[in-house]
Write a structure and sequence with these properties.
- The protein is mainly beta and about 160 residues long.
- It has 1 helix and 12 strands, in the order H-E-E-E-E-E-E-E-E-E-E-E-E.
- The strands form 2 sheets. The protein has a 6-stranded antiparallel sheet, with no helix packed on it. A 6-stranded mixed sheet has the order 8-7-5-4-3-12, with no helix packed on it.
- Strand 3 and strand 4 form a beta hairpin.
- It is globular and about 85 Å long.
Length: about 160
């Protein structure tokens, strides 16, 4: 009886499963809009969104083409500093008041409370939209950078 059960289990365990291939239509762009570097690796960017209020500009740079975003960075700057170089080691500038940087991916999270240790960021208006030059290093030594000059989609209110 036990032998029959084992043989039956063996026969059913060895049956071939046919793979079903399904064509999927992609609504999102496949070609990246830009790229950023983190920890000496380059990652593609498929979402570039900006929003603003009376005092601040905020930029969302994400790897995924649609939300929810699991790999992204947020760069925020007070409008008074637009066009000026922000030096992260300059203690006269205050994190979360003059600027803010957030980075997250599936293995790392640097909230706004943890500003980069050193480096700089320049955000300015350009003929194409905005120009961002961001190059920094976190306290754990991991470098992060993003350079882009072009259009950003405006966030929906």
């Amino acid at each position: 009886m036990i032998l029959a059960s084992v043989l039956l289990a063996f026969l059913f365990g060895c049956t071939r499963i046919e793979t079903e291939y399904v064509d999927v239509e992609k609504d999102a762009p496949v070609t990246p809009l830009a790229s950023y570097n983190f920890d000496n690796k380059s990652y593609s960017v498929h979402t570039l969104i900006y929003s603003e209020n009376e005092e601040y500009l905020e930029f969302l740079i994400a790897r995924e083409p649609v939300a929810p975003f699991t790999s992204y960075m947020v760069l925020c700057i007070m409008k008074d500093h637009l066009g000026k170089k922000i030096d992260f080691s300059d203690y006269s500038l205050m994190n979360r008041i003059d600027y803010m940087v957030i980075f997250e991916d599936t293995k790392h999270y640097y909230p706004s409370e943890y500003a980069p240790k050193n480096g700089n960021m320049t955000i300015k208006k350009s003929g194409k939209g905005y120009s961002i030059d961001f190059d920094a290093k976190y306290i754990d030594g991991k470098p992060i950078s993003f350079k882009y000059d072009g259009e950003f989609a405006k966030a929906e209110d």
